[in-house]
Amino acid sequence: LHLHGMDWQHNNASSLYVPEGNYYGGFIEPSQHACMEQMVMTGPTIRLLKLSIKCALMREEWELAEKYLTVLRRVPFEGAFCKKYGAMVRHIDLVNSDKEMALIRLTEPIHDCFESQFQQPLFMGYNLVLYDLRGHGLNAPAYCTYSIRERKDLAAMIADTKKRHPEAATLGLHGESLGAATSVAVLEGGPPVDFVVADCGFAEIVLVLKGAMKGMKLPGWLVDLGGIAAKVRYGYAFNEMRPIDSLAGNTVPILFIHGAADTFITPDHSRRMQAATAGESELHLIEGAPHAASVLTAPGLYAEYVAAFLEKVEGGMARKE
User: Fold this and answer.
1) Which contiguous run of DSSP H or E holds residue 205?
2) Is the separation of the CB atoms in 170 and 314 below 8 Å?
3) How far apart, in whole angstroms, are the C-alpha atoms of residue 196 and residue 175?
C-alpha cells in the first residue's frame, strides 16, 4: 500500500491524520497548527473546521472559536454541532465537562514546556516514555558528562519501564544529539531493548568540541586543557566520553539518521558508529538538514525511513520467536 501526502510525494501520508492524531493524543496546540496549515493548503473543510473549533475551545481562544463557528454555521446540516459547541464559548466549565474533551484533558502534557518542544510523532503504534536528561528541562541543574552518567540514567529508565509495563512486547530507544549519543552509550551494558534510532549523535565529544573551537578560531588544545580540568573537578575527562566504544560486540539493531548539512556534529560521527556496531544497522542522511533538524526538514522521508526500519526489526523478532 503506497500512501501519498497532500503534496503527492510518496511518504507516510501523515498530513492526512496528524491533526486528529495530535488532538486525541492530548497535543492541542500542534493539532491546531496542523489544522491551520492544511486549511491554507486545501481550504477550510468541515473536518478541519470542527477540529479547529474544539482546539480553540480547549485553549480558551474564544474569538477564534467563534470565527470558525461563524463559517461552519453556513454549512447545511451542521446546526447541531454549532449549537453544542457554540454554547461552550467563554464557558470553560462546559468545555471541561464535555465527555470527549474531559478524556483528552487526561492525556495532555503535565508541563507546558513539553508541548513547546514537541515534535510530530510518527504514529506507528508505539507508546512513548519521554524524560529529560539530567540537567535539562525541569531537572535540577547538573553538569553534563556527555553520555557517561546519562547512560546510567537511561539504563534506570529502561528498567523502570520494563517493571511498569511488563506487557510491552517491544522496547526501543529514540534519541537526538546527546539523546542519540546516550542511546548508543547505554548499549554497552546490554540493556533489554530491541532497537535504537540514533539521530545526529556523536561518536566522541572531543571532536565536537574541537570543531566548535575551530569555528571560533580558537586552538584545539583548549579542549585538551578543559578535559584535564573536567577530570580533576568532576572525575570525568572529555576523552572518556566516547559512545562509539559501547558498540563493540553490540547486536541491537540501530538506525542512524543524520542531517547532511550538520556542521556541529558532522555526519562522519554516524558513519563511524555504523562501522563500529556488530549488529544490523542503517544510515540515512537528510539533505539540507542542519543539526537536530532532520525530522523538521523532511518529516515524510524521516517517517518512511523509521517505518521501514521498524518493520524489518519487528520481522526479524517474529522469525526468532
Assistant:
1) helix 205-215
2) yes
3) 8
Per-residue exposure over 139-166, b if at least 16 CB sit within 10 Å of its own CB, e if not: eeeeebbbbbbbbbbbbebbeebeeeee
pLDDT per residue rounded down to tens, the chain (321 residues): 344 444 444 445 556 678 888 898 888 988 998 899 888 887 889 999 999 999 999 999 999 999 999 999 999 999 999 999 999 999 999 999 999 999 998 888 766 555 555 555 455 677 788 888 888 877 888 999 999 999 999 999 999 999 999 988 899 999 999 999 999 999 998 999 999 999 999 999 999 999 999 999 999 999 999 999 999 999 999 999 999 999 999 999 999 999 999 999 999 999 999 999 999 999 999 999 999 999 888 988 998 899 899 989 887 664 454
Host H or E run for residue 128:
none
Rounded to whole angstroms, the Cα distance separating 247 from 64 reads: 52
Question: Which residue is listed with cell 468545555?
Answer: 95
